[in-house]
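[step 3/7] fold_predict: job queued, chain A
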Amino acid sequence: MHRIVIVGGGAGGLALATQLGKRLGKKKLAEITLVDAARTHVWKPLLHQLAAGSFDTHAEEIEYLAQARWNHFKFRLGRLEGLDRESKTLQLAASHDEAGREITPPQQLGYDTLVIAVGSQTNDFGTPGAAEHTIKLDSPQAAKRFNDRLINACIRAQTVPRSAGSGRLTVAIVGGGATGVELAAELHAAAKVLANFGFDHIHPEKDLQIVLVEAAPRLLAQLPERLSESALRELRKLAIEVHTNEKVVEVTEGSLKMASGKVVSSSLSVWAAGVKAADFLKTLGGDNPVETNRLNQLVVNGNLQTSDAGIYAFGDCAACQQPDGTWVPPRAQAAYQQAMYLVRALPKLQRGEPVPPFVFRDQGSLVSLSEYSSVGSLMGSLTKGSFFIEGQLAKIMYWALHKQHQLALGGWKKTVLITLSEMLDRTYRPRIKLH
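[step 4/7] structure written:
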């Protein structure tokens, strides 16, 4: 039986494994295996909410083993460590628990077709002190670590006398992209809720200072300018301090230093600027590595094949050039479209049939500003260029994106049940996670 191994259980990788399991695994046409270093999946666009504590991770997480059982694929716990292209074998590193005890030993896993979808990680560009003194918001584990530090900092702030003219707790966010902007707004909303749970001195305007720093001339630099202006206007309404055209050149335990000489004090710092693929991809294949670019991304052709025809890659870890010369952007909607492309294309390519190249269709962008607002631009066949939306309509569209992800993984019945469960949870659960 043909063995298809998918490495990476993010939004794209898990959707691909689920759909291939239904189409091929259920009919015994192929053996589908998903590999990931974690046991559960969290939709990456929700990391800012996880960091602020504004949703229950256990309610949102999808367990890989259960998803595999329900959708006719296998799951293997492990981190990709090496690849032998000649023998078509993966080397998976041993996994350990929090105490350092071994859970699974080093493993080897054979494949006939390999799909790599390991996503991306935050790029601190080698900035001095960034690795030691900031939390990089690029994984559920990092978001949980930030939330723990945030709650601890709030508890600590209760006992520290307030300095004149400054907040007792300052959160500095490096990076004015979607993650940074969304986190800033979410933290402001979280502070209001924290005040109702014993942190009566953590007022979002008086006691909590949120600082957002962006090296580009404007926020959301990769998105339409009107989106940037609207987001900036909303953040200023919340008294969030925004610095644009400011490049961070050094991070210390209690401050950010800019190229301009400006210094921003910080109790807690988050790095949400820049992305790159994982470093191990540069050497994937050992002495005969698969081709990568300067951001460690695997270079793929129109069919999402790497320089090795038996290895595919998609999502943030892949560099895919479009027919018009542009590159597929590292966005969740691109990974989802590529996953659905491979669901249809892989069986045909295995049979040697021609398949049209992947073409990314930009459906626009949406940025959530917590409970306050959302802004976005929609693109499609009914509009020429982009159509700007904000407010309640944009919030509904943002919510619909999450539902689309749940539909791809669980179908209509399960998505409806999850939605009803979310509605019930809001009636008796705290609006913020406190542990």
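[step 5/7] annotate
The CA atoms of residues 122 and 308 lie 27 Å apart.
The chain has a mean pLDDT of 83.
exit 0
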